[in-house]
Backbone:
């Protein structure tokens, strides 16, 4: 099934655990079939994601970076000096590093599911910023964050950029933010980057680009499932579908069967009719009001809201 013998996977901690296989199998057998978006991020998937962030249609990454640049002094004022900066989904740590100059954090805690990638990034970063204490945590924090003793309990600033919150549905987002507030300790604050509701044409283009990078990113999930589950998906049987669901205020990504297919994996199988879909990602879009309501319901008081001139993306600061 897997046509690449050297595929290291990455992204997901080397795993292929029973629990992972059970989760994937359950997702494929569901009606409708669905898959947690974390399985999009094997090594190739992470590279495809990095690449699609450069597309003209995919505005979130560069718009957020522009907001950070334009408002860095306001952000620093809101956060206060000497924070314990906790970077959730740090990846290559570039976004946090761009704020080191103004934030002057006392301690930088980088958390990411991709532990090896993170440790390399942090080693590089530490040599450039010898005065900042740094901790790398290889952790899937989506079900709750676990910080070790060495992380001071006061003045924590949780950094959750890139619209990552958008992958949570409303209930999970509320649970996640409440959990952060509870694990925050004294004087915790939050710096959040979220994507905003806008014209469907702009949203649809961002998730169905002309070059087909987002399609490749989505379809690559099937290669990863072949690797993780030893399934026998033929990528050519499937096509990328993405659209803005206005009623649910979310982009949905699906993989749609181009013809009737039978997919097999050890212990089970599933038939898909032509046109049947696997729901692979939801990306929720907020308004200023819906975001404030979510934060407040989870025990966070929004203090600042920064956006770009077009109002496409928002960076929000909140405190407990
Ligand atoms: C990484 C979840 C923020 O929802 O925009 C990009 C992922 N999916 N293009 C997003 C994604 C398709 C991205 N997040």
Residues:
């Amino acid at each position: 099934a897997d046509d690449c013998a050297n595929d290291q996977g990455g992204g997901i901690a080397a795993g292929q655990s029973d629990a992972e296989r059970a989760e994937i199998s359950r997702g494929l057998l569901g009606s409708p079939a669905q898959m947690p978006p974390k399985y999009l991020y094997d090594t190739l998937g992470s590279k495809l994601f990095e690449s699609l962030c450069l597309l003209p249609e995919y505005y979130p990454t560069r718009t957020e970076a522009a907001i950070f640049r334009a408002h860095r002094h306001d952000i620093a004022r809101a956060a206060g000096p000497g924070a314990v900066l906790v970077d959730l989904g740090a990846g290559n740590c570039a976004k946090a590093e761009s704020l080191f100059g103004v934030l002057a954090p006392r301690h930088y805690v980088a958390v990411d599911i991709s532990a090896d990638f993170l440790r390399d990034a942090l080693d590089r970063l530490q040599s450039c910023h010898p005065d900042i204490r740094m901790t790398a945590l290889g952790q899937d924090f989506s079900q709750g964050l676990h910080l070790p003793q060495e992380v001071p309990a006061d003045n924590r600033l949780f950094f959750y950029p890139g619209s990552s919150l958008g992958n949570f549905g409303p209930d999970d987002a509320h649970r996640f933010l409440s959990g952060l507030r509870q694990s925050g300790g004294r004087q915790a604050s939050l710096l959040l980057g979220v994507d905003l509701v806008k014209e469907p044409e702009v949203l649809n283009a961002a998730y169905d680009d002309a070059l087909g990078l987002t399609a490749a990113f989505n379809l690559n999930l099937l290669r990863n499932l072949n690797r993780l589950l030893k399934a026998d998906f033929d990528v050519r049987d499937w096509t990328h579908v993405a659209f803005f669901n206005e009623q649910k205020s979310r982009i949905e990504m699906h993989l749609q069967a181009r013809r009737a297919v039978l997919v097999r994996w050890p212990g089970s199988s599933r038939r898909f009719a032509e046109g049947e879909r696997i729901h692979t990602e939801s990306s929720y879009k907020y308004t200023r009001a819906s975001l404030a309501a979510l934060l407040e319901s989870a025990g966070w008081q929004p203090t600042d809201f920064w956006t770009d001139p077009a109002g496409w993306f928002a960076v929000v600061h909140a405190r407990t």
